[in-house]
Amino acid sequence: MTSPLPERAARRCHNVINPLHSTHYFSPDLSRELTAVGVSDSRAAYFAVRAAAMGPVGAGVVTAAFFNFHPGLVARHVPAVWETASPQVVLAARARAVDATLRRLLGEETVAAKETAEAAQLALRATEACTRHARPLYAAHADLPVPDEPHLALWHAATLLREHRGDGHLAVLLAADLDPVEALVTHTATGKGMSPKWALGTRGWSREDWDAACGRLRERGLLGADDELTEAGTALRGEIEAETDRLDRAPYEHLGAAGVERLTDLAGALLTRALTAGAFPEGMIGKG
């Protein structure tokens, strides 16, 4: 029997696992590989690589599963992107990009290290307790084969854990009666989400959409005149994260306290190397 998890241990583990998955979205390797198969637009590339596991789905499915993108932005690229590159071609290109990205950010010695293989084994063990029902992005990626190489197996497991938590998180946002833009605004206001500039630049919403969402949140008493979260807004975001933790507890409870602590340490060290190597753009996170 595994020992109970310390408070927020699962979230701390997620917070270092999730960015390891996300590194490829900002990588020149992904742009190179997708351009080579005909997908040169960065937004089309993002929709394609994240949705490809679901097959050649339409704009409605991607809008629903991704949640916080403007439907019009999605429709400009989906399903047209599948006429350029099939989901199978996109998945293969993504695998090549992830391999190149991790080797570049972590270094060949780290990629081949026993600690990386250990992290992969722990993360894969955690995914054994993930559930498919009402989790479309997780379920689609869970159907993909586990790569043989440890660094790619770790990335695959990180993807499963990310999408498992993410699918549950969207259910919590709906229960909190937050629409896509309101969710972005309140997350940004915590200082932990994307900055408004990044959110608007990547999610397809206009400044008018953002300002209107701020107005609705003020009417609900969740946002102040200074666009900072009120006490009620802060409490709501806390409740959202706590409920997301609850829906995502199974994989980490399955791994156990010692396994979660070890995975957090190993993945944290890998993330530090990736961050030092410039994995993410400056100014992406925060209120600026």
Automatic annotation (TrEMBL):
Domain of life of the organism encoding this protein: Bacteria
Name of this protein: SalK
Classification via NCBIfam families: SCO6745_fam_HTH
InterPro entries attached to this UniProt entry: HTH_67
One Pfam family in the UniProt entry: HTH_67
